[in-house]
From TrEMBL:
Residues 290-320 are annotated as: Disordered. This is Uncharacterized protein. It comes from Thiorhodococcus minor.
Length: 320
């Protein structure tokens, strides 16, 4: 007969399974009910940002080979893809997701329990030129200068939740585990807005900030093309006379840059606010499932504590 502790373990496992099924049900029928298929979302990303879908086996094998020197930053990816790329000539930009095997439950004297967490990567191949110093932010928090500058280090600091690495002529940015593994897996199944990824609405801002970080480095090369443009609307320029033409143009350029910085800051704040709102809704739904699970647990405790019913007497032989 199972011991009382074994019974409680079985009950706990049943509650965890029920909670997981509830999260998946919310994910499928509430959160993602109106989302188009992933193939359609990838096609939209490719069209919006001039990207090429590179999800075939040959392309993914090429990407895995490019990532092989960055094991200290990425770990050992179990799965890579989907992936997209864009080239401006000899330089190539990769955007991709990959799975990382993270510790979910640490157990003393027994093997740890792991979970597959989806992370987001930005890889730049800078083309011909002198090699960059081999460096990984996962191992050394001090960026090498040169090629880093005061400006590039400041921009890198704004990439919260990412780590940077360099090797040869390649530069890599990857997102990091932002909470405990099981929680991040559940949140990623609930909404793409809760963590960095290809389908996160803040993706374009984070990719642009990564490109800006590289452009601010001392690399002696032409700046990388912008990943996307922000429409800041028409700018009213005063009609200059010949004597003040230069000063008017400089002032207009300064105002446009300030407006662009304000717009980017507002967009980042809006995305952060949206992430927090989505997270709050998820926590509320999760708490409701926990409350329901608690009611079921109380019923099990009452049933276990109740005295056993007396055995029924054998019926008399009707033939006697």
């Amino acid at each position: 007969m199972p011991s009382r502790s074994a019974n409680w373990i079985l009950i706990a496992c049943a509650l965890v399974i029920g909670l997981g099924l509830g999260v998946l049900a919310i994910d499928r029928w509430v959160v993602k009910r109106d989302l188009p298929p992933k193939e359609q979302q990838l096609a939209a990303l490719a069209e919006d940002f001039g990207l090429t879908l590179r999800d075939d086996d040959v392309s993914l094998a090429e990407l895995r080979a490019l990532l092989s020197p960055f094991a200290a930053t990425t770990g050992a990816p179990d799965r890579i893809g989907p992936a997209l790329s864009r080239s401006d000539g000899e330089r190539l930009l990769w955007l991709f997701e990959y799975s990382s095997r993270e510790t979910a439950i640490a157990r003393v004297g027994k093997p740890d329990v792991h979970a597959e967490v989806t992370l987001f990567g930005i890889l730049l191949d800078l083309g011909p030129g002198p090699d960059l110093p081999a460096w990984s932010q996962a191992e050394d928090s001090r960026p090498p200068a040169p090629p880093h500058t005061v400006d590039s280090i400041a921009r890198l600091a704004r990439l919260d939740g990412y780590r940077m690495a360099m090797h040869g002529r390649r530069v890599l940015f990857v997102s990091t585990l932002q909470t405990w593994a099981l929680k991040q897996v559940a949140e990623q199944r609930t909404s793409a807005e809760l963590h960095p990824g290809l389908f996160n609405s803040a993706m374009k801002v984070e990719v642009q900030l990564a490109l800006d970080t590289v452009n601010a480095m001392d690399l002696d090369m032409a700046p990388l093309d912008r990943f996307y443009q922000i429409d800041i609307g028409p700018i009213d320029l005063p009609k200059p006379d010949a004597s003040g033409l230069r000063s008017a143009l400089e002032e207009s350029s300064r105002q446009a840059k300030e407006q662009l910085d304000r717009d980017m800051a507002e967009l980042r704040e809006r995305m952060a606010r949206q992430r927090e709102e989505n997270r709050a809704r998820f926590e509320a739904r999760l708490q409701q499932f926990r409350d329901n699970a608690g009611v079921g647990n109380e019923r099990l405790e009452r049933a276990e504590a109740a005295p056993e019913a007396p055995a029924l007497a054998e019926p008399a032989d009707r033939g006697q």
